[in-house]
Amino acid sequence: MSRLQTIIRSLKNGRRILGPIASISVNNSHGIRSYSQIEVQKDAKLPMPLPVSTQNEQENEDTKYEENIKNSILNHALEFVPKSGWSVESLSSGAKAAGYPTITHGLFPNGGGDLVHYFNIKCNEQLVEQMKTWPKMELKGTTVPSQFIENAIMTRLTMIDPFKSTWPKAMAIQTMPNNVSNCLATLLSLVDDICYHSGDRSVDFNWYTRRVGLAGIYKAAELFYLTDNTPNSSATRGFVASRIRDAQLIQAALNLNPVAAAPQTLTAAFTTAKNILGINTLK
Known about the structure:
By secondary structure, the protein is mainly alpha-helical. It folds into three domains: 4-35, no CATH class; 59-108, no CATH class; 115-281, no CATH class. It has ten helices and five strands. It has helices spanning 52-77, 81-84, 88-97, 112-131, 146-158, 167-174, 177-197, 205-226, 234-256, 258-277; strands at residues 4-6, 9-12, 15-18, 22-27, 32-35. The strands form two sheets. Strands 1-4-5 form a three-stranded antiparallel β-sheet, with no helix packed on it. Strands 2-3 form a two-stranded antiparallel sheet. The chain is globular, with a radius of gyration of 33 Å. The chain starts with a strand and ends in a 6-residue tail after the last helix. One of its GO terms (biological process) is ubiquinone biosynthetic process. InterPro entries: COQ9_C, COQ9_HTH, Ubiq_biosynth_COQ9.
C-alpha cells in the first residue's frame, strides 16, 4: 500500500479549520503500520484583527442604531403621556407604536425620567432653531435684551402646553436623585442658548450672573405658568417681564459696586440652585 498524505484547509468567517495532517506508511509484509510526526503548515495565515478605525466605525454605527431606536420609542411615547403620564406605561406604549416589543422600555433605566429628559432636549432644540431667526443685539454693560429673553422664555414655556396637566409630575420626577444631573444639564443648556442667541458674548463675571439669574427666572415662570389660566398666558408674560426688570436692577448694582454686591450675589445664586433642585421644599 503506497504512502498517503491528507491535508484539509479551509477558511470560514475568517477562521482557519485544519483537518488531521499525517503521513501513514504500511509494511505489508509484517502488517505493521507506522505514523510519522504531524507536519504543521508553516505558511498557514492567522486571521488579521480589524483595524482600530474600522472597529470605531462599527461601534459608532451600533451606537447610532441604538440611539435611533431609543429616539423613535421616546418620540412615540410622548403621544401617550396625556393619558399615562411620564411613566413606564407610556414608554411601553411608545415601543409598541414604534414597532418594537413593549419590553423594550428596559432600554430606559430611569423610566419616566428619561422621557422627561428627551422632551426637554427636544424643546430646547426647537427653541434654538427659532431663536436663530430672531434679531440680535450686542450686549454691553448693563444692557439686557428684555424683549428677546421674554419671548424666548414664553416660547419655551408654551411648548409644555400639550402636557400642562401632567407637568407637575414631570417636575417632581426631575428632582429625584438619579434625574437631577439631566435636569440641570438641560436647564443650563437652555439658559446658555438664550443668552448666546440674544447676543451675550461676555467672558467676565456677567457671564455667570446672567445665566444663574435667567435659570431662576425660568424655573419661577414655569411654576407660575402651571397655574395661569389667562388667555394666551398673559399673566405669565407679565410675571416674566417683571422678573427681567428685577434682573436688570441686580445687573446694574453689580456693575456699580461688584465687590460689595458679590456676597449677596453668591447667596442668591446658592438659593436659586436650591430652588432649581427643589431642595427648599424638602423637610
